């Protein structure tokens, strides 16, 4: 049996099953959907055990050169605490593990996230006007006006009338342009996925049909 | 005329699906390729930066995606890897996404074979490691502590090209091919802003608009956004009839169909509103 052709056919049939939803909901779509969810769950469980638990935890606790590092029992206990959510009586234990994850994540992110996504952006907005060609200065002005008017639109402590109202209108226009750009990029992304599937169907799957029927190369 | 517009406004969405499918299938079937001019865009910035790297530099490429975004990111990976090899730059691959490691391996091994580059001398793949940005922080102090072996369990000490590499600062450039989180934002935050390593990015079109802000602040040296970014890089590197360039023809035709339907939808909406039928 040619496993490559079998794989291509399975991929093609599941693709057709999934796209059949565009006509209407149907058993073929449901089958492909459930197959995908089940396979993903199975794949991820095995992958996490093989690539996360064994190399990062088990091999640290029981090294191949011998010995036993008992300290690694502690993270193991925290892992079990996470699973306690499935037992209502002891579900509260999972909060200890979640607390540790959220705490370390917040601690690590607090400075870095603020620095990268707030300070650097504010600095970039302010200093962008200072230098460059005429076009660059114009572009920077658009940026500054866009940022300030966008912020004014979200400032609700003063009624949007007069100058504030006009600035808010500029802000909402800028926001609409940004949403439009985002929408355009999203269409491009979704079409790219469709193109990828169509290329697979036309260039990989279709040529296997004559081969299976014993006609052509 | 008004009747036609009204009927178009109530068009069954399945007809639109069929037209979009045809707009994609016909250009692929006829192998239509449209010209892809590359102007002063973030993709050219990334190309210029890579092109200026001195021979023998070390570049870290992180394959932070999985098969669901392959149509956009795999052509980028192949074009970037090809360019890096052509510049005789050493490539260290790794992944923040589990399946990214094998997709990166495919890209690097196929390009290495075509250019006669040797694994462990010119390129290697450290594989996947969990932890996202926490792991990146650890890479800032010691990469071998995080990756004692490569993807095929070859020990760090037995890989010749890694002798001069200790931490993130050993790299002249880090490129993240990113489909989401963990991905490029973690690299910018931790490797770029914290350790001062230049960062380049290839990303899905969905995430491109949010990442432009990092270009404006010079937190990234360049960016490839979606299939267009991949097609730009293929054009700049000189790949003839690359997968992304071929994908841009159905992309453009389908966009024209969508624009047409947006216009029809708006005309139908305003004509109905004029009649007082819509608000």
Helix content of chain A: over 70%
Number of helices of chain B: 11
Query: Given the helix and strand composition of chain A, which structural class is it?
Result: mainly alpha
- What is the count of structural domains of chain B? 2
What helical percentage do the residues of chain B reach?
40-55%
Give the number of domains of chain A. Answer: 3
Based on Cα principal axes, name the global outline of chain B: elongated
What's the rounded overall pLDDT mean of chain B?
A: 93
Would you count the extended β strands of chain A for me? 0
Give the oligomer, counting copies of the same chain as homo and different chains as hetero: heterodimer
Strand content of chain A: under 5%
Gyration radius over CA of chain B: 22 Å
- Beta percentage of chain B is 5-15%
Q: Indicate the low-confidence ranges of chain A by residue numbers.
A: none
Measured between the Cα atoms of the first and last residue of chain A, the distance is: 18 Å
Quick summary of this structure?
With about 220 residues, chain A is an all-alpha fold. Chain A has helices at about 5-20, 25-60, 75-85, 95-125, 135-155, 160-205, 210-215.
Report what the structure shows.
- The complex is a heterodimer of chains A (217) and B (279).
- By secondary structure, chain A is mainly α.
- Chain A folds into 3 domains: 1-68; 72-117, no CATH class; 128-198, no CATH class.
- Chain A has helices at 3-19, 27-61, 73-83, 94-127, 134-153, 162-205, 208-213.
- With 279 residues, chain B is an alpha/beta fold.
- Helices cover 51% and strands 12% of the residues of chain B.
- A 6-stranded parallel sheet of chain B has the order 3-2-1-4-5-6, with helices on both faces.
- In chain B, strand 4, helix 8 and strand 5 (199-203) form a beta-alpha-beta unit.
- The longest helix of chain B has 33 residues, at 243-275.
- At the A-B interface, helix 2, helix 4 and helix 6 of A face helix 2, helix 4, helix 6, helix 8 and helix 9 of B.
